[in-house]
Amino acid sequence: MKCPYCGYNESKVTDSRPVDEGASIRRRRECLSCTRRFTTYETIELLPVIVIKRNGSRQSFDRRKVLSGMLRACEKRPVPLSSLEQIAADVERECQGALEHEIRSEEIGEKVMRRLRDLDEVAYVRFASVYRQFKDIDTFLEELNKLLSER
Fold first, then answer.
1. Nearest residue to 47 (alpha-carbon basis) of 111, 100, 104, 86
2. Is 131:109 a contact under the CB 8 Å cutoff?
3. Per-residue confidence at 48, pLDDT binned at 50, 70, 90?
4. CA atoms of 13 and 15, how far apart (whole Å)
5. Which among 11, 31, 52, 66 counts the fewest CB atoms within 10 Å?
């Protein structure tokens, strides 16, 4: 591993421990030249999931985009960030585990909405209004009535 301080190519591992529930390994390393310490992370290399957008374009799945959308929907709501991060991780893991490595953005949105509905109904409606592109108040009311009838 190349030292980020001096660029030397040799280092020794001083400590290793699992992180992200065992999905990654955090390693503390010491450069054999300058003796400074730095941290590296080792993760499994997964095949990229390609998201097919509404306009037909394709791009790599980005967990940060999913999290960003949920954060906007949960603004000023009592929803812990850790819960949103867990949802994003679960959705990513579910997409990675699928047989197909291409997924429509609509499917990702539905996965997120199912989880948000259980977490915070207001955040769910906010997310759904952007995701489903509610055209008018009637569409919005239909979604609210569905939510109320499920209670």
1. 100
2. yes
3. confident
4. 6
5. 52
pLDDT tens column, 4-26: 999 999 999 999 999 988 889 99
Please provide the size of the chain in residues: 151
pLDDT confidence of 33, banded at 50, 70, 90? Answer: very high
Query: Tens digits of per-residue pLDDT, 78-102?
Result: 999 999 999 999 999 899 888 788 9
Rg for the chain (alpha carbons), in Å? 21
| Spatial separation of the C-alpha atoms in residues 16 and 72, rounded to whole Å | 36
What's the pTM value of the predicted model, to 2 decimals?
0.63
Torsion angle, alpha carbons of 56, 59, 63, 69, to 10: -40
Which amino acid appears at position 83 of this protein? S
> What region, left, alpha or beta, does residue 6 occupy, with left being phi > 0 and alpha being psi -120 to 50 degrees?
alpha
Q: β-strand 24-31 against 11-19: which pairing, if any?
A: antiparallel
Residue recorded with tokens 């190519």: 9
Q: How many CB atoms lie within 10 A of CB 17?
A: 9
44-48 contacts, C-beta under 8 A, 24 or more apart? 46/96, 47/96, 47/101, 48/101
